[in-house]
UniProtKB/TrEMBL annotation:
Domain spans labelled Lactate/malate dehydrogenase C-terminal: 3-102
Name of the protein in question: Lactate dehydrogenase/glycoside hydrolase, family 4, C-terminal
Keywords of this entry: Hydrolase, NAD, Oxidoreductase
Keyword Oxidoreductase: yes
InterPro entries reported for this sequence: Lactate/malate_DH_C, Lactate_DH/Glyco_Ohase_4_C
Keyword field contains Cytoplasm: no
GO cellular component, one term: mitochondrion
Coiled coil: none
Superkingdom in the source lineage: Eukaryota
GO MF annotations, alphabetized: hydrolase activity; L-malate dehydrogenase (NAD+) activity
Organism of provenance: Artemisia annua
Length: 114
């Protein structure tokens, strides 16, 4: 495993532990389903909910059930950044479609063999 992946894992674990300890408004970057771009998924900063016992009892379908209270968006982009984002969208879209197909295939395989 690369050092940067280990660091990212440690940051993620720390954010989870903060939530479990009741720290509100933990802000981290995550790849989640959102509408901040034309893509169905995108990595951006999220405000995660506090993982306390009262949150675990939310009814299914509420947005807090996902663990993401708010997708904070991209913020202001320079013209250069906007052009770069637009140039990346075809590759990102293709990768997302491959990932969704892979996940559906694995879920079906697991359900068939589970």
């Amino acid at each position: 495993m690369c050092l940067s992946c280990s660091y990212d894992g440690a940051i993620f674990a720390d954010a989870c532990l903060q939530g479990l300890n009741g720290v509100p408004d933990v802000i981290e970057c995550s790849f989640v389903q959102s509408n901040i771009t034309e893509l169905p998924f995108f990595a951006s900063k999220q405000n995660t909910w506090e993982l306390s016992s009262n949150v675990r009892h939310l009814s299914a379908g509420e947005t807090r059930e996902t663990g993401v209270e708010e997708v904070l968006g991209l913020g202001p982009l320079s013209e250069y950044e906007k052009q770069g984002l637009q140039a990346l969208i075809p590759e990102l879209k293709s990768s997302i479609e491959k990932g969704i197909k892979f996940a559906k295939t694995k879920a079906k395989t697991f359900a068939d063999n589970g």
